Amino acid sequence: MLVLGIESSCDETASAVVQDGSSLLSNVIASQIDVHSKYGGVVPEIASRKHMEAIVPVILQALSDAGVSLDDIEGIAVTRGPGLVGSLLIGVSVAKSMAFAKNIPFVGVNHLEGHVASVFFNDEKPAFPFVALVVSGGHTNVYFVKDFQNFNLLGQTRDDAAGEALDKAAKLLNIGYPGGMVIDRLSRGGNAEFIKFPRAMKDSMDFSFSGLKTSLLTYTKKRNSPITKDEMPDVVASYQEAIVDVLVDKTLRAARRCSTSRVVVTGGVAANSRLREKFYEEAKANGIEIFIPPPILCTDNAAMIAVIGDNLLQRGERNSFDMNAVSRWPSLLEL
Ligand code: KG4
Ligand code: ZN
């Protein structure tokens, strides 16, 4: 089945064409990073307007890159939530219009379930069941995934998401945007033991990153002088290590608890080189197989949405034209 995916939940306008839920024919992503960087974060109103400008050219590009026309598309998968509702609505409206005009089915997809599905483009695909860590700018969730329809939430963040903690730290240190990517780059060569940042909620499956952020703020305030350019890699490497440590530790613990030896790591923060390295190292030592998508499929994209869409459509699921976007999706079990 040839499925067109559409994603517009945050600051990436994306479209992709996927064959049979596993073959990626095209993957177009228009990022709004430049537009939002001067504000140090995503401005929802601007994001909606930019999605509106980009969505049609992005979809046309995805069709053209795949060498197909809209007449060849058999179903449309669009991100329904969670995300910025004004942004989601752009994708949802376009998906509905195209489905109506071409008389083809469309389905609304959970963005987080999509992130997990991005690993199915890897050459080595995980067999179900597995534990999945979805770690992004908005979420830090650990699931036990029995199959595409069966996600059991084992732990989540009680405050900031891991990506948010990285983004806020970069803003505080005034080192650029988006923070996760900047910290990743600056940390290489830094001493991760320079500052001993706290690791919160050690005995729980849930996460908390707001204390870490406060701890960084306290560190900067207590100093008599500003952090120098030479010290910065050590400071951010220490901060990043505190996040990476907790993510790896709790996810592998979840795998042990669920008696599975397969772990999927995905979402924007899974593009982080230190997180990837540590997961592979620790997994090897613990007899666990790690599956991480390539960085371009860790961050927001529409290919992952098309994989879930294909699965839903193959099962005969369809949404009606009164489907609305949802900013919060309380549970993946609702799908
Ligand atoms: O999945 P995503 O693209 O969007 C959401 O659904 O949130 O994730 C965006 C998050 C941001 O917080 C960004 O700073 C972080 O992913 N990120 C990274 C890296 N690339 C993106 N964090 C750490 N290292 C990276 N290389
Ligand atoms: Zn995302």
Care to describe what's here?
The structure is a single chain. The chain has 335 residues and is α/β, with parallel strands linked by helices. The protein folds into two domains: 2-117 and 298-334, Nucleotidyltransferase, domain 5 (2-Layer Sandwich); 124-292, ATPase, nucleotide binding domain (Nucleotidyltransferase, domain 5). 43% of the residues lie in helices and 19% in strands. The protein contains eleven helices and ten strands. A five-stranded mixed sheet has the order 3-2-1-4-5, sandwiched between helices. A five-stranded mixed sheet has the order 8-7-6-9-10, sandwiched between helices. A hairpin with a 2-residue loop joins strand 7 and strand 8 (150-156). The two termini are 21 Å apart. The protein binds 5'-O-[(R)-(carboxyoxy)(hydroxy)phosphoryl]adenosine (KG4) and zinc ion.
Q: Would you tell me which CATH topology of the largest domain applies?
A: Nucleotidyltransferase, domain 5
Q: Low-confidence spans: pLDDT under 50, at least 5 residues?
A: 331-335
Small molecules bound in the structure, each named once: 5'-O-[(R)-(carboxyoxy)(hydroxy)phosphoryl]adenosine, zinc ion
Helix/strand order = EEEHHEHEHEEEHHHHEHEHH
- Tell me the CATH superfamily of the largest domain: ATPase, nucleotide binding domain
Secondary-structure class: alpha/beta
Largest sheet: 5 strands, mixed
Helix content: 40-55%
| Beta-strand percent range | 15-25%
What is the CATH class of the largest domain? Alpha Beta
Number of strands: 10
* Average pLDDT number: 95
N-to-C span: 21 Å
Assign an overall shape.
globular
Number of helices: 11
CATH architecture term of the largest domain: 2-Layer Sandwich
